[in-house]
Amino acid sequence: MKKNLYLVVLFFILVLVFGLASCSSTELEKKITNLEQELESKNQAIKELENELKTTKNQLQVANEEIYNAELEAEKEAQEQEEETIEEIEEPAEEEIAEELPEEETTEEEKSYQEVFSFSGTGAKKSEPFTITGDRFKIKYDCRGDLNQAFLYKIEDDLFLELIVNTLEPIEDESIFYGSGEYYIDANMIGSFTMEVYDYK
% helix / strand / coil in the chain, to the nearest 5? Predict the structure, then answer.
């Protein structure tokens, strides 16, 4: 009788132990399941954060490109404005120069050789003084003798300045000289001659 009672008690103890073990296992499985769900939820949150970060990086890159393009555009506009300003400054100056140049060219074009003095004779002879106002002049000569010499002198120093002609045969030609002032001609001829002085003015 007592033996059977012990067996019954032992049976109930085993049932209780196995019941508690079963309950502990179920709770553990639930906890594991909950942890797995939380982990999955956190992984999902991490993925969302990574996507947001990627999106933010893309937006930042786009913003940087827009800033760079805006700076290029601003620099281009500033350069165009500077060029326009320079053109506005240069154009009036060029117009002024263009207005002045034709006058200078016209003045230069209007200059020509004009006869201011003539000298002729036979043998050795000095001319009257003549005045040159331009920066150059020419002397035309027509010499018909066998000896034809003529020299150009400047009044202020009375020194020989240039040789006009020196030949032993008749000649007709011209020579150009430079400088303004008062001059005279000293001719030494065997035969007749004629000289004409032309001032460039």
Answer: 55, 35, 10
Question: Which phi-psi region, left, alpha or beta, contains residue 123 (left: φ > 0; alpha: ψ -120 to 50)?
Answer: left
Domain boundary among 51, 79, 110: 110
Give this prediction's pTM.
Answer: 0.46
**Does 185 lie in the same domain as 98?**
no
List the chain pLDDT tens, one digit each, 201 residues: 655 666 666 776 776 666 555 556 787 788 788 878 887 888 888 888 888 888 888 887 888 888 888 888 888 888 888 888 787 777 666 666 666 655 554 455 689 999 999 999 999 999 999 999 999 999 999 999 999 999 999 988 777 789 999 999 999 999 999 999 999 999 999 999 999 999 999
Residues 52 and 137 in one domain: no
The residue segments making up the domain with residue 13 are 1-110
Q: Are residues 4 and 88 in the same domain?
A: yes
